[in-house]
Write a structure and sequence with these properties.
The complex is a heterodimer of chains A (about 260) and B (about 325). Chain A is α/β, with parallel strands linked by helices and about 260 residues long. Chain A contains 10 helices and 12 strands. Helix content of chain B is about 75%, strand content about 5%. Classes of the chains: A alpha/beta (about 260), B mainly alpha (about 325).
């Protein structure tokens, strides 16, 4: 007890996401080269970077869709994909990893809705399959969430009958159905027609203001400026700089950040 | 210099044809005439008529004997055997195929190799050889036992009691069918988008649920047409069970044919018509199964024949009304 009083904050409220010295490589290609990142609960973090910089991989490491070669990730104080045993990290069983993933929301660039299920079933499937809710409660929740993303009218439709923006909003409702502590967005608007981007960003913004912890990979600089508590710029598998948006976006310290921003703005 | 006649005519005619043209109004475009199509239709109709005429009038076919045999109890008993063997082998073969496909796609190299070897072996051996092998199996192994190889046996069966002709037939066909079904199912699973696997595992759906509710239903869309193709092959392959002394549809006709040698042709016609009926029934079922699994894959489902007929009738009525009005 007494030894912990010096640095108690991290112990009492663990970081929502903590990425610790993560390395990931495919063959000889280093995708992540020692990334450290801490996201506090309720914080909105936007990750920027050129394509191939490792930003999507970083996001996929957080929910263990990709295994880091070295390093570890914890979400709300819980190690992801591994357990600590006598000072060593051991791989968890697939079942345990799936259970952990159900506590982390993930929204894909290409939506990846289940095309053979109705919109309502897409949202209700996970709470039922993971045994958290009975079927009627899950359908009730799904209706409520679809209402929240403005799609109460579309419950009976199949995903391919919807526009891209509507599909992505269903995907967000599907992630919310598991009441995740953290939601990860992997370029949520990159596959959308320009006029549909706004409706998806509005839903994400609504989540941001409601205090949900979000980590968002995006190219929407304007959106980052508006909602982010922190902007992280990543290049070559390393975090180049991070800070509040008005610092990173308006007064970037590094040449590479300036170079990137001059190209996208 | 010889100019093609068409060119000069059109050059001379073109302006004069255009000159008095009335101002264009929005109107229905006159469809292109296709005389070639009419000629082909006529030729085909004549050939079909000749064929039907031959079928009906050639005494060689003995249609009265066909009528006599078509619903005879021996033939119908054979038909029931054919249906039983086909249905059991289709279900067991598909189940075996799913297991083999999962083994082939698993992460375990041993399972992958075992599955590959099975498919390789069973696709190489002719079905008739498999059947006759199994038929003689009880001679090769008097008892079948489950236990440690070279060690004690836990269970043992008297082979000759287990292996009825029916069991041999179903087993042989299922073993063969499973090898082909494995490839059909594997192809179907591979055709499901990688993003679906990712989305299912990102949501933390349990592994069994991912396969049963997410991946397999989508795979069925491409499995169905291929497996029905298999199934039609299987229905016809059941005629081979005659060689393991099971009297199926073909077997009964064959036996009757040796008793009444004069009726061989009508008996073969009876068999042909019954196989045609079975295949047609399977095709109808295929249409509705495919339609069921197309939900969500297309924006709207293809119409059933009844719906097509209904819209056809209403369209025709509307057209007649329009023409009458003009």
């Amino acid at each position: 007890m007494s030894t912990h009083t010096i640095e108690p904050l991290a112990e009492i409220t663990p970081a929502a996401v903590e990425v610790h010295d993560v390395h990931k490589w495919y063959g000889a290609h280093r995708v992540l080269d020692g990334v450290d990142l801490t996201v506090r609960p309720g914080e909105v973090t936007v990750i920027l970077g050129p394509s191939g910089s490792g930003k999507s991989t970083l996001l996929r490491v957080i929910n263990h869709l990709e295994k880091p070669e070295i390093g570890y990730v914890s979400v709300n104080g819980e190690l992801i994909g591994v357990k600590q045993q006598g000072g060593r990290l051991k791989e968890l069983s697939e079942r345990a990893i799936l259970a952990q993933r159900s506590r982390i929301g993930f929204v894909f660039q290409n939506f990846n809705l289940f095309p053979h299920l109705t919109v309502l079933d897409n949202v209700a499937a996970a709470p039922v399959a993971t045994g958290r809710l009975g079927k009627p409660e899950a359908l009730e929740l799904a209706r409520e969430l679809l209402g929240r993303v403005g799609l109460a009218e579309k419950t009976g439709a199949y995903p391919r009958q919807l526009s891209g923006g509507q599909q992505q909003r269903v995907a967000i409702a599907r992630a919310l159905a598991l009441r995740p502590g953290v939601i990860l967005f992997d370029e949520p608007t990159s596959a959308l027609d320009p006029e549909l981007v706004g409706e998806v960003l509005a839903v994400i913004k609504d989540l941001a203001t409601s205090g949900t912890t979000l980590v968002i990979v995006t190219h929407e600089i304007g959106f980052a400026r508006e909602v982010a508590d922190r902007v992280v710029f990543i290049d070559g598998g390393k975090i180049v700089e991070q800070g509040p948006p008005h610092e990173v976006l308006d007064k970037p310290q590094h040449e590479r950040t300036r170079d990137f921003l001059s190209k996208v703005l | 210099m010889t100019e093609p006649p068409g060119t000069t005519v059109s050059l001379a005619d073109a302006p004069s044809a255009d000159a008095p043209s009335k101002p264009l109004t929005a109107q229905r475009v006159q469809p292109l005439r296709r005389p070639g199509r009419w000629i082909v239709t006529l030729v085909v109709l004549v050939l079909v008529a000749q064929f039907i005429h031959g079928l009906a009038t050639n005494p060689f076919y003995q249609w009265s004997r066909f009528g006599y045999w078509f619903l005879r109890p021996t033939i119908l008993d054979g038909l029931v055997i054919t249906l039983e063997v086909a249905a059991l082998s289709a279900v067991l073969g598909l189940l075996g195929g799913i297991l083999l496909a999962l083994a082939r796609l698993s992460k375990s190299p041993v399972l992958r190799a075992a599955s590959w070897t099975y498919v390789w072996a069973l696709r190489s051996i002719p079905l008739i050889v498999v059947l006759i092998f199994l038929y003689n199996f009880s001679a090769l192994y008097q008892t079948l036992s489950i236990g440690v190889p070279f060690g004690p046996a836990f269970f043992s069966f008297d082979e000759s009691k287990l292996a009825t002709d029916m069991a041999v037939a179903v087993l042989g066909l299922s073993l063969n069918e499973a090898a082909y079904a494995a490839e059909v199912v594997r192809g179907g699973i591979l055709s499901v988008d990688q993003g679906q696997h990712e989305a299912a595992s990102a949501l933390g759906l349990p592994k069994g649920y991912q396969f049963r509710k997410i991946v397999f239903p989508q795979a069925l869309r491409s499995i169905t047409p291929n497996y029905v193709n298999q199934l039609i092959g299987l229905i016809k392959s059941t005629s081979l069970v005659f060689y393991v002394s099971l009297l199926d549809l073909f077997g009964s006709a064959q036996t009757m044919g040796s008793t009444y040698p004069g009726d061989i042709v009508p008996l073969l016609l009876v068999v042909t018509v019954w196989y045609l009926i079975l295949t047609s029934v399977v095709s109808v079922i295929q249409f509705y199964v495919e339609r069921h699994y197309a939900r969500g894959a297309t924006r709207s489902l293809p119409p059933t024949p009844i719906q097509k007929l209904r819209t056809g009738v209403t369209d025709l009525r509307a057209r007649i009304r329009r023409e009458a009005a003009v």
